[in-house]
């Protein structure tokens, strides 16, 4: 278990693409993941099922698709985190988030079901992070052909979720 606040990753611990997510985390990423999970549940609880298919602009994901994307991405980030924390040197592939959204069929599911799944995924992610020691968090491996540390994946996971929740709050509601 991390003995102190998980230190922010250095810029050399993740691809530049993720800098925006990492920079959103200015406190303890574990606390932020817990608070953000509660915020997601609060926001999703205010959305009527009849509004869950809303898109703020043509070609944009629906509310349900945004939630499905956050679920899928968090699972992938957590898997990468597990692999790095276990010091697995095997390079991990990238994923196409748009393809995942297209094939997930999130719009065919009730929003409450997606909210429950997000809560379950978040609980699993938090349990994984709590199980890691400082040495495991420092391991650097490869994902999407770029170097990434386990510590950076904690920050990326939190920042990605915060980013999409803010977009939901600002553009969809």
Per the CATH scheme, the topology name is Four Helix Bundle (Hemerythrin (Met), subunit A)
Arrangement of strands in the largest sheet: 1-2
Number of separate structural domains? 1
Q: Termini distance?
A: 38 Å
Low-confidence stretches: none
Mean pLDDT, to the nearest integer, reads: 96
Give the C-alpha Rg: 16 Å
The secondary structure category is mainly alpha
- Which CATH architecture? Up-down Bundle
Topology:
Layout: H1 19-23, H2 29-44, H3 63-85, H4 97-104, H5 111-130, H6 134-137, E1 140-143, E2 146-149, H7 150-172
Antiparallel strand pairs: 1-2
Helix pairs in contact: 2-5, 2-7, 3-4, 3-5, 3-7
Keywords:
173 residues; Four Helix Bundle (Hemerythrin (Met), subunit A); 7 helices; mainly alpha; two-stranded antiparallel sheet; single chain; globular
Structure description:
- This protein has helices at residues 19-23, 29-44, 63-85, 97-104, 111-130, 134-137, 150-172, and strands spanning 140-143, 146-149.
- Helix 2 packs parallel to helix 7, helix 3 (63-85) crosses helix 4 (97-104) and helix 3 packs parallel to helix 5.
- It has a single domain (29-172), classed as dinb family like domain (Four Helix Bundle (Hemerythrin (Met), subunit A), Up-down Bundle), CATH 1.20.120.450.
- A hairpin with a 2-residue loop joins strand 1 and strand 2 (146-149).
- It has 173 residues and is mainly alpha-helical.
- The protein is globular.
- Helices cover 57% and strands 5% of the residues.
- It has a two-stranded antiparallel ribbon with strand order 1-2.
- It is built from 7 helices and 2 strands.
């Amino acid at each position: 278990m991390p003995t102190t606040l998980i230190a922010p990753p250095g810029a050399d611990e993740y691809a530049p693409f993720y800098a925006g997510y990492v920079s959103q985390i200015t406190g303890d990423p574990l606390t932020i993941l817990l608070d953000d999970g509660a915020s997601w549940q609060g926001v999703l609880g205010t959305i009527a099922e009849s509004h869950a298919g809303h898109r703020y602009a043509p070609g944009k994901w629906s509310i349900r698709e945004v939630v499905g994307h956050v679920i899928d991405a968090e699972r992938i980030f957590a898997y990468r985190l597990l692999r790095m924390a276990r010091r697995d040197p095997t390079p991990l592939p990238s994923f196409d988030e748009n393809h995942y959204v297209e094939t997930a069929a999130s719009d065919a599911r009730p929003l409450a079901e997606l909210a429950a799944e997000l809560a379950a995924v978040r609980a699993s992610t938090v349990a994984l992070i709590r199980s890691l020691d400082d040495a495991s968090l420092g391991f650097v491996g490869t994902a999407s052909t770029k170097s990434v540390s386990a510590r950076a994946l904690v920050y990326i996971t939190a920042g990605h979720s915060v980013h999409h929740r803010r977009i939901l709050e600002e553009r969809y509601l």
